[in-house]
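Example 247.
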Amino acid sequence: MSGIEGRTAIVTGAGAGIGREIALRLAGAGAKVAACDVVEEGAQECAAAITAAGGEARAYANDVSDAAAVAELCARAAGELGGIHILINNAGITRDALLLRMSEQDWDAVLAVNLKGAFNFVKACARPMMKERWGRVVNIASVVGQMGNAGQANYAAAKAGMIGLTKSAARELAPRGITVNAVAPGFIETAMTRKLDEQARSAYARAIPLGRFGTPGDVADACLFLCSAAAAYITGQVIRVDGGMLM
Ligand SMILES: NC(=O)c1ccc[n+]([C@@H]2O[C@H](COP(=O)([O-])OP(=O)(O)OC[C@H]3O[C@@H](n4cnc5c(N)ncnc54)[C@H](O)[C@@H]3O)[C@@H](O)[C@H]2O)c1
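Predicted structure in complex with nicotinamide-adenine-dinucleotide:
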């Protein structure tokens, strides 16, 4: 896809699921990829898969919620891979519980990883992107951030917050040639949704007009488009990849 070749891309949560697929496809389109994950083996496996396929990648072990560590990682990656042009804020966790049973720890953990983590990376990558006068940020939100979900007050709040972060950063960074968009997946086949029991899965599938859960590739395709030259005039948007679940 044009506009991606030769760029350096940071992908958080690249060790599994959607992040891994985005990292592989960005590398396939010619980007040099910094595969970051809190699980070091995950990051290494992703970078190894990219290298085995003939691409260029390095693995970085990192907790997105640690601001100082994120700043250090971004400086290292910029030095080792040559600047930073693309940022995919994908790392995310769930700690589901109904409101009355949701602990303060579960609230804080989900906000720290899903929302503060994205802020940490946007802040650390903004300066190198400004230097290039070119940048693409894609935040992986969720339809739940737009529609809410019983049992996910922490997760929905974090994902709604990510959408506010996306629009604010888009306005601030547009004059520097940097676009900032969000992709909001519905139900995607990954470890995160494999936790659901069969009854919940078929109830959710019935609520999806296209009649199936999405694949990590469905989400990665939207991300690649937003990073490509074809999306140069799109910023501050939320693109839903949800089989029509929310319209
Ligand atoms: N799977 C879905 O149905 C779905 C739907 C909507 C949105 N999303 C979002 O997509 C993103 C990826 O989800 P997934 O389904 O691939 O999940 P996953 O659990 O399969 O993968 C998440 C990855 O993030 C990493 N990670 C977790 N905490 C981290 C931290 N503190 N620092 C760095 N890395 C960390 C994990 O180690 C893992 O490799 C998440 O932001 C998730 O909220 C997923």
